[in-house]
Amino acid sequence: MWTRFTFEDxxxxxxxxxxxxxxxxxxxxxxxxxxLVFQEWEPAxxxxxxxxxxxxxxxxxxxxKVDPGRLTRQQAMxxxxxxxxxxxxxxxxxxxxxxxxxxxxDALFDSVSGLTTTGAALIMDLEHLxxxxxxxxxxxxFLGGMGLIVIALSLGLLSSSTSGLYSSExxxxxxxxxxxxxxRLISKISLAVIGIAxxxxxxxxFVAGMEPVRAFFHGLWISISGFMTAGFTPTSQSIMYYHSYxxxxxxxxxxxxxxxxFGLFVAVLRGxxxxxxxxxxxxxxxxxxxxxCIIFIxxxxxxxxxxxxxxxxxxxxxxxxxxxxxxxxxxxxxxxxLTVFSSGAILILAILMAVGGSSGSIGLTVKSIVSSIKxxxxxxxxxxxxxxxxxxxxxxxxxxxxxxxxxxxxxxVTYVVGALVGIAHGYDAxxxxxxxxxxxxxxxxxxxxxxxxxxxxxxxxxxxEMWAGRLEFITLIALVVKIVASLLPVRKPKxxx
Length: 497
Fold this sequence. Notes:
Strand order of the largest sheet: 1-2
Distance between the termini: 25 Å
Strand content: under 5%
Oligomer: single chain
Largest sheet: 2 strands, antiparallel
Number of helices: 21
Structural class: mainly alpha
Mean pLDDT: 82
Order of helices and strands: HHHHHHHHHHHHHHHHHEEHHHH
């Protein structure tokens, strides 16, 4: 029988949700300070109001339970599931009042997209967005890419319960045995990469003719978005705006770095480079990228968009890495994708995002299938043991294979549901499939459906897809089951006559 939420569970979850909301208040101070520095008084008012709302709600929620104690695994999963959507509502408040969104739902869509690192956007007149609003968009990317729970753990705000919370957000890297130390190391590595990339991209922008301050912010924002495989850019033209081969190359390197497990970063820093080259994810990812690159470039060779071979290869590889990393950066316009790209090319991008969104699960699923075939074709006396390299040697057992298969299946089901809803609204089947994959995989590439004025029901479906994809379903399903079980009437036990 499914267990229910008790009143005590709700009080404990509310307390920790208040802690995360209070942390969100601190994050809202960054665009507020940015607005004050650049004398953007209207945005400053909005972020001051949003910070006040966040602080008030966070304080009230923390009062639900003064001494909450240690979170259980089920409470941790519920907290994570609630937090991502609850904080998206708060994040959307200053954006909705900016005048750059047609409705509050559009602002909520962008907030969910930002926090889940999807990168799809419904914002209007992006080129005239304030520094403060742009800063908030990329702060959301940083919070979402790092993970709300990871940041809170690294700051010691949720130290009373660690492992359950850490895994509930889809994290599996344990670079050191202690979870708190792991989260702090992840934070340090991320800040170091973003810092180095910011300096490099700032120089590219400055050489291209940008004023120093604007060059710095563009470098910072693109660095955050690239390494977090997020997808927002400060202009509506994405990476095309910069017209820089060097910046495109830097972005490709950032996206590739963003795909790598943090455990491998630590292994390389410790001089264990052999673990990097033996790693299952690295090897399968490399061969997968090479294989799909050949096919994708072959499809592009038939289109008139590319004037020469080098242009075709450069843009093709960029789009391939962007889709595979689920970043969503682009060097071609959406109109060019729809009018020049073949249906085959669009489907390839969709496949790349689908695999990228659940690469570990799909890889292990394939590995488990191979294991099953080996076991079926081996003599009865033989023992089949499949080993894969991931931060050292690991044995593929039934539990790992079952979990990978479950996640992969749920991703596919979500892709299909989203595609059917898009088709039901009258959109092209190929575009509907690709757009649904982009949302659920948090890939962010748009195929002409995610635009201002899109059907509200489809917009809501995409919001749910982004949420589910970021939580990788298990946490979300556990949350839904608990809610449904709590709402069902209690059955009274039958008395013996």
